[in-house]
Amino acid sequence: MTKIGVLGLQGAVREHVRSIEACGAEALIVKKKEQLAEIDGLILPGGESTTMRRLINQYDFFEPLQQFGERGKPIFGTCAGLILLATEIVGQDNAHLQLMNMKVERNAFGRQKDSFEAKLHITGVAEDFQAVFIRAPFIVDVGNQVEVLARHNDAIVAAREGHYLCSAFHPELTEDDRLTQYFVNMVEESKKELAS
Amino acid sequence: MSNIGTDRVKRGMAEMQKGGVIMDVVNAEQAKIAEEAGAVAVMALERVPSDIRAAGGVARMADLSIVEEVLNAVSIPVMAKARIGHIVEARVLESMGVDYLDESEVLTPADEVFHLNKKDYTVPFVCGCRDLGEAARRIGEGASMLRTKGEPGTGNIVEAVRHMREVQGQVRRLVGMSYDEIMTFAKELGAPYEVLVGIKENGRLPVVNFAAGGIATPADAALMMELGADGVFVGSGIFKSDDPAKYAKAIVEATTHYQDYELIAKVSKGIGSAMKGIEIGTIAPEQRMQDRGW
Predict the structure, then answer these.
(1) Which of A15, A79, A96, A105 is catalytic?
(2) CB B40 to CB A10 under 8 A?
(3) Pathway it belongs to (chain B) (predicted)?
(4) What are the mean pLDDT values of chain B's consecutive 10-residue runs (294 residues total)?
(5) A5 pairs with which residues across the strands?
């Protein structure tokens, strides 16, 4: 069975586990770097990106996470997870994992009082996806290899670059598992490719 | 088309804080120390609970220049406290862009009968509870997050433990009940029936429940996680300790890895003394903050 990890240092971990299981895959909460060897794909959940980055450093997750991606294993970052994946962050000198070629802006829609829900068209996933944005970032600019999957007004809010996927919103907070299913499919395809 | 202030957006914000530590701060410098230590949010206050306790008098919403200073100092969410039932304090803090409001018993209540109708606000609310009845009443009024009350500003964990055990135990009892028992349970608890039915069906509270009120050490924080808290609020515990920056980091680590006892031992060493605590029995009944709220 395909096994998908959720980085369990902080944030909305339980919800992703539910969604992964609803898609017929096995879920593992990853709290130690050694557990990365057990999984076929990884979700970086929503939470506080600054907090998660500090915890990633403290538990020596930084290089193992980069190597996980560089070995071709799929990673899906939601909200804070999207920030962790980006190569560039507006107003900050240093980005985090730098696995996806894109520039992102934190809290780009405003503070909590500006947090919102909206229906999105997500290429290859859904015409009418109810997306929950919480103090969400958006993607300001993407590299040539990055495919934009969804926009809200003009802002890019979902994208894919090869085996990396990200969304500025929280698919795990609704019962709509279609985006998680899309990622599970990516993981299953990569598993076949990596095996051959 | 987009909708702001929905239940999903308000409750979801608290979901993102899970597994984290929310720290009380009284200025920009402390807020930065908290952020650097890995806090998931800060609570902007004029005085931490132990100082409120020592000062006496009426405790109100913080000086708004402090709230503004903290809002500008950090990129993590900023919370602030309004007095129970004080509609205008809550509205003013909401208008300033505070990310989460605490309708808090740490401040002197403005209304001794009614809490705020929290459904009216775009900003989400966290409220204190000592048992499932109080938790369900606050959810019924629209709270998007709960915290056990404990006894704030004491550095004594005993009340936080009592309240967390009470809420968790009552949730377990409710989940095991048959439907014909729930209305009478609702009557006993003074809880809205529909909220209880929802908890029974989902097997848990519909919102995140943090622990608060007396957490003074890394081991205290880990204990509350062990008892089922989704995260912890640390008030006086950090900035009343000898070395706040080290202390804050140790509490964050112990919360994340609350079952890794070797790690808790490691982070608890060489961080200086915890705040001096207060025995609950020595607090006059009218000074008990947990009894505020109805």
Answers:
(1) A79
(2) yes
(3) Cofactor biosynthesis; pyridoxal 5'-phosphate biosynthesis
(4) 92 95 97 95 93 90 97 96 98 97 96 97 98 98 97 94 98 98 98 98 96 96 98 91 92 93 95 88 91 90
(5) A28, A42
Residue A46 is labelled as binding a ligand: no
**Hunting for tokens 């020596």 — which residue is that?**
A60
- The ipTM estimated for the assembled molecules is 0.92
Give the distance from residue A186's alpha carbon to the nearest chain B alpha carbon, in angstroms.
25
A14 contacts B38? CB cut-off 8 A: no
Q: What is the pTM of this model?
A: 0.95
Write down the number of H helices and E strands in chain A: 5, 12
Q: Given CB atoms, is A133 within the 8 Å cutoff of chain B?
A: yes
Q: Print burial letters for B164-198: b (CB count within 10 Å at least 16), e (below 16).
A: bebbbebbeebeeeeeeebeebbeebebbeebbee
Burial B38-77 (b: 16+ CB within 10 A, else e): bbbbbbbbbbbbbbbbeeeeebebbebebbbbbbebbebb
Q: Kindly report the nearest CA distance between residue B60 and chain A, in angstroms.
A: 23
List, in order, residues 6 or more apart from A95 with CB less than 8 Å away: A86, A87, A88, A89
- Exposure on the CB side of residue B269, measured as CA atoms within 13 A: 5
Judge: A47–B17 Cβ closer than 8 Å, yes or no. yes
Catalytic annotation present for B81: yes
Q: Return the pLDDT at B112.
A: 96
Q: With contacts defined as CB-CB under 8 Å, which chain A residues touch B19?
A: 8-11, 13, 47
CATH number of A3-195: 3.40.50.880
Identify the bridge partners of residue B100 per DSSP, sorted by sequence position: B79
Q: Check if the beta carbon of residue B212 is closer than 8 Å to that of residue B163.
A: no
Set of chain B residues whose Cβ sits within 8 Å of the Cβ of A117? 2-3, 6, 8-9
In chain A, whose CA is at the least distance from the CA of B15?
A: A12
